[in-house]
Amino acid sequence: MPSFSVSTLVYLLSASGHAAYIAKREVNVGANLPNGWTYKGCYTDGPSRQLARANYADPSMTEESCVNFCQDHGFPVAGVEYSSEACCWCDYKIPAERKPETDCNMVCSGDSTEYCGAGNRLTVFSNGGTSPAVNPGPSGWTFLGCYTDGGTRTLSYRASISGGGSAMSVLQCTTACTAAGFAFAGVEYGTECWCDDAIRGGASSAPEDDCNMLCGGNNSELCGGPNRIILYKGAVAPKTPSVLPTGWKFQGCLKDNIGGRSLGVYVGVEGGYTNVANCIAACAAAGYTLAGVEYAQECWCDNSIKFGGIPTTDGCNMPCKGNTAEMCGGPDRLNLYSLASLDLDFSTTSSSAIVIPSSSSTTTLPTSSASMTSAIALSSSISSIGTTLVTPSTTLISVASTTTTIPTFSTTLSVSTPSSTAIPQVFLSTSSTAPARAATSACTRTSRAYVKNAGFESGLASWAFKVTSGDVTAEVITNNHPMGGCSTLMLTPRSSPSDGVRRVVLRQTLAGVNITEPRAFAGFFGRLTKATIDDGGPQITVSYGRVRIHQWDACGSSQNKCNLNAPGTLGYYRIVTKLSLSLAAAKNTDIVVEVVWSDTNGKNNPVLLDDIILL
Fold it and tell me: What's the domain count of the chain?
């Protein structure tokens, strides 16, 4: 580099500007660059940012400090720009347009013998490292290119992988889509995996440079970008509609509504991969003769059509998430299947057009009691908000007596965190015979204020359920365990991972909650036994709209006893409350209940949840 006297430098520096310019130079990088790094030239930084992966600013910027920063962050290209702003930029590729060396004529703010670019000019260095590349496709998959992904999804079904988005790679995504039976896979925004049986939404080819985000779990390959998805096509055979089990018949489309379900028992599928076959199988296993699929991903069961379900000829037009070759109802529309014969008249909208023939062997209605008597017990009523919480009471309402024998049921779901790629898990219902309550009663669904199915009388209807760590089973039990209504949710941890953490999340989207007013929360959290339980006190955290309401330790320890007996004496609870809640900072309308077992001894003591109430 040429030498300058102090007087010459003073002459060359602009007295009015913030940056120093040198009109002519010999190219010579700093003396302390890391091994392998070399000067690559002066480049244009525009019209869009050319080195954009990482950056920092430093009023004492030098060429060496910028190169060290980029090397420490794993980038093979570094560039310094506009000395007075002292900006360092990193990326994988050298910019496209080289300029004369004299264009990069600002001296570095941290070393006046070095050059740090200029306005829209980068002094660029590189160690010759390789850039991340598009994966041409794992075995059995073909790379299709970079595509747009706008308002309507190019691929409809989001897939989860073991380790989450931070572990994302093309192989992880294609493996997940293969496991779910889809023919197309796509990676997007670095951490997202999408699957489908066709390319949808009017997607169009996009420039390959638009798909420039690194995969969360593999920084040597690219995983799409913002509203850009890299697509792959697999060698999966085209899907065909389900073959119905022997005796089951398709009965058409019914109107449905969330206020009064045509079929009353919900059987969900974790991940949203419902299809006709697994819905019918779940309903049949639980002893039901009617099955219905709705809104692409919901499965409903019963032995009779409730609330005047009305036949219709339109609206059942949503492909099943578990098999896009068949339809799974639509919004407020149910594709109905039955084991017994039905007479559904699609020429009328009268609910009387639905007839269940008397020739069927039995018509059973699932409930939690062994028989109906002349009383319905309604309990666990929270009637005020503020500083007073009314103690649960029992009210008896007289009804006509009957001796119809009714089987009980429970909804059992077993999911676990897999060791490799997450595969959708099916929630199945299983029938059971439960002992009679001390005082038998008909089941009344619990719906408290904003939370639907707060007492789990309809299984997990309205709730999304997911195990995020370890192995946990969830069972809706009905025999003498509930605190209120006639059902309670039992969560049982199973085999313990090395860190002992088992975690399950329940989520429900609420409607009509005014977050500008104080709210109140209450719930019953319990155990199966009154004896002292030494399991570290599983923690139960409740939040609304990402605002934490509170975190409680499950009762059962010597310091935190379960002091409330369920009416049937087989469940023991503690009521938890939080009054005068401020939810003004809520980011969405979801109430979330998270239960975490963190004992390293892997103890498998269940937790009971009942009457989750937000007022």
Answer: 4
Percentage of the chain beyond pLDDT 90 is: 25
Domain boundaries, position 562: 409-614
What are 484-494's pLDDT values in tens digits? 667 889 898 87
**Coil, helix or strand for 488?**
strand
pLDDT at residue 533 greater than cutoff 70: yes
Indicate which CATH number applies to the domain containing 595. Answer: 2.60.120.260
- Do the domain assignments include residue 527? yes
Using an 8 Å Cβ cutoff, are 249 and 338 in contact?
yes
* Residues 2-41: tens digit of each pLDDT: 444 433 333 333 333 444 444 444 445 556 788 899 999 9
Together in a domain, 215 and 318: no
Annotate 279-321 with DSSP letters as a single string.
HHHHHHHTT-SEEEEETTTEEEEESS--TT-EEESSS--PEET
Mean pLDDT of the chain: 74
Is the preceding omega at residue 424 within 30 degrees of 0, hence cis? Answer: no
> pLDDT-derived band of residue 458, with 50, 70 and 90 as boundaries?
confident
Do 225 and 268 fall within a single domain? no
**Cα–Cα distance for residue pair 518/582, rounded to 1 Å:** 5
User: Does the pLDDT of residue 297 top 90, yes or no?
Assistant: no
- Select from 556, 605, 551, 607 the least CA-distant residue to 576: 551
pLDDT score of 89 more than 70 = yes
Predicted local confidence at residue 76, as pLDDT: 92
- pLDDT(42) > 60: yes
Residue 217 lies in a domain: yes
Which backbone phi and psi does 596 adopt, to 5 degrees?
A: -130, 125
Torsion angle, CA of 193/198/202/203, rounded to 10 degrees? 40
pLDDT in tens, 221-252: 999 999 999 999 998 777 788 889 889 999 99
**Strands 77-81 and 87-91, sheet pairing:** antiparallel
Whether 584 shows a pLDDT value over 50: the answer reads: yes
The verdict on residue 514 lying in a domain is: yes
Q: Are residues 162 and 67 in the same domain?
A: no
Cβ-Cβ contacts under 8 Å for 517 (sequence gap 6 or more): none
Scanning 203-271, the segments in alpha helix (DSSP H) are: none
**Residue 75: HSE in the Cβ half-sphere, 13 Å Cα cutoff:** 24
- Cα 92 to chain centroid, rounded: 32
- 3-state SS string for 95-132: CCCEECHHHCCEEECCEEEEECCECCEEEEEECCCCCC
Same domain, residue pair 463 and 536? yes
The 3-state DSSP class for residue 355 equals strand
Q: Write the burial class of residue 375 (CB in 10 Å: 0-12 exposed, 13-18 middle, 19+ buried).
A: middle
Nearest alpha carbon to residue 189 among 219, 141, 224, 163: 224
